[in-house]
Amino acid sequence: MHFTDEQPFLDAIFARYSDDGPRLVYADFLDEAGEPERAELVRVQLALARIPDAHPRRAELVNREAELRDAHSARWTEPLAGLVTAVEFRRGVPDSVTVTAGAFLERGAELFRTARVRRLRLLDAAEAIEKVAESPLLAAVRELDLCGNELGHAGVARLVGSPHLGALAALDLGFNGLDDRAAAALARSSALVNLSVLALNDNDTITCDGVRELAASPFFAGLRRLDLSGNTVGARGAAALTARVAFPHLHTLGLRGNPLGDEGAEHLARSPLLARVLARARALDLRDAEIGSAGAAAIAGSPALARCATLDLSGNEFGEAGFVRFAAAPGLSGLRTVRLARNRITDAGLSAVRSRLPALLKQLRLLDLSGNRLTRYGIGLLHAARGESGVVLDVSNNVQASAGGEVPVAVGDVVSDVFRRVDEAAELRWRIAHPQTLPRS
Length: 441
Known about the structure:
Layout lengths: L2 H13 L5 H12 L3 H15 L7 H19 L9 E5 L2 E8 H14 L4 E5 L5 H6 L8 E3 L6 H9 L9 E3 L7 H8 L9 E3 L8 H9 L8 E3 L7 H8 L9 E3 L6 H9 L2 H10 L1 E3 L7 H9 L8 E3 L6 H9 L9 E3 L7 H6 L4 H7 L2 E3 L7 H11 L5 E3 L16 H23 L8
Parallel strand pairs: 2-3, 3-4, 4-5, 5-6, 6-7, 7-8, 9-10, 10-11, 11-12, 12-13
Antiparallel strand pairs: 1-2
């Protein structure tokens, strides 16, 4: 099958990129052209894109996808050998490539003649970012991934000065050592007016000031996905994000690993933004966000949480009081997976809500309480409340839990047994030393 044979089908796919119809027609064409494995990959990846993570067929489809790629991807991507570092098939089409910035500058024209490049990931781009920004080839790129290039704010300033970013729909600038100056440069760039996805995760030093710049930018009014995970966004940043005039179309937001605190959690809990996020993804990840008892209660009490199926509040250390306020909230009925690892939860917290536990566990598929301060008593309460339900309980790395989640013995039992053995040893030594004397009472 010659590349030109595919052109009409690829033209239709890229003209209606989010539509599965042209891809299914393409799969039929591949079958007829003697490429049944390529046709199967298209259909498998389309199915994976449609079904949720918990779907019973997902594991089977993931395994089959891996088998097809491992067996055939070298042949399917042979025209790109030596041009790129990696190729990714997405919904059946190899439209994502990884290439060094040097190779892109030297052989980019050849690459774009050989493949339909929608997503371009560049490696080692820091020193060459000015020349990359000047390349007219960027005008054909819809998704630009510069993750992990350590561009700094100066590199971002050079990038957004490019006149070739008008078609860009997604930009990944995670792990680039960016700060509020870089966020401001992005926010003031009219070149990014068509951007709908922006990743600024794990830059560490973007604060509320950078968030305010982004939220106030007229060029980001169409943004739909924003990842600010792993930064320094606090309560004031959360307030800027959740203001009614900010990001009116945003429906996916990453905030894990930011010091939101109770105040930031409360801003989020009562915002229309949270309702949009949960209506879309049905998942909320607020790990390591310095949320305390009041913040946990605010999240659990948010009306928007009724739409949430997966909630992760791990690493917030909100303690016994936070757990009690969380578990007692009335709006948890939609939850199926709850992760509360590393929150200093104790037996007393479980005991305080023991009447609520059976109903909560009955609705859940997974409750993660790993890395807390539970002993055999608290874990026993959980197992008793679980009854015949199929919920998976993760209680590993507690005060008393084995890797499998079972408790070998209670702390009290261990202590008493130690004292008993000490007493017995002392009694035996005394008897040996005084064979003619009655035993001590």
